[in-house]
Design a protein that fits this description.
Layout lengths: L12 H17 L5 H15 L7 H8 L3 E5 L4 E5 L4 H8 L2 E5 L6 H11 L3 H23 L5 H12 L9 H12 L2 E6 L7 E6 L4 H10 L3 E3 L19
Amino acid sequence: MWSDYPIKSGLGGSAAVVASIIKCFDMAMGLELNRFQISELAYQAERLSFGIPGGWQDQFSTVMGGFNLMEFKSNSTTVHPINIPKDSIKTLEHSLILCDTGIKHDSGKIHDDQKEQLNNEIVFKNIKKNVQLVYKLREKLISGEINQLGLIMDQSWNFKKNIGKEITSKKLDNIYNFAKKNGAIGGKLLGAGGGGFFLFCTNVKDRSFLNYSLRKRGLNIHPFTFESNGLVGWADLEKGF
């Protein structure tokens, strides 16, 4: 098993690995688990069996694939697919830059800190504001207003970095501010925060300059495309599996 991205990158790699292993057992044993069942088992493996703090979003995202609005409650998870025009998806891919900060993060430590902060009224309000932005983001995606996404991401990042003291640092803030001065409209750290990858949003015409500027600063840029199918398993029928 291998991955395009390093460990502790904030890109949900551990969820992808666990979900893939469960899919292998599913196929080998003929269990015929559906996507919700695999997502839930992957969550239980990481969060309950291994005791790794965090939510459900990584497991459901990697298994479901595509663009979705996911609503998590204590006793249920609802996944709402978002139908985005194909030309908007291409514009979105060419408006986003995935930038490696070179800083590994400890998501478990960050999640533990966030739980401690939940009793803080200001922190709780910031979390609610961030949730509201998710619905606003969905509206812009459906309408194809890709140029508005950067502004929403900027708002979201400003809310998120005030949720816990482990989420950002002076070095991360410097990278973010540098990106905004060189063409980024907005962005946010992926995953829990503290390190890993920034996802920056820019106008298509400014992408090359931002890309060049970040590389010149010594940061690595990783190409990517959106995955619409999610978790897929296949068997080598000639060998039996």
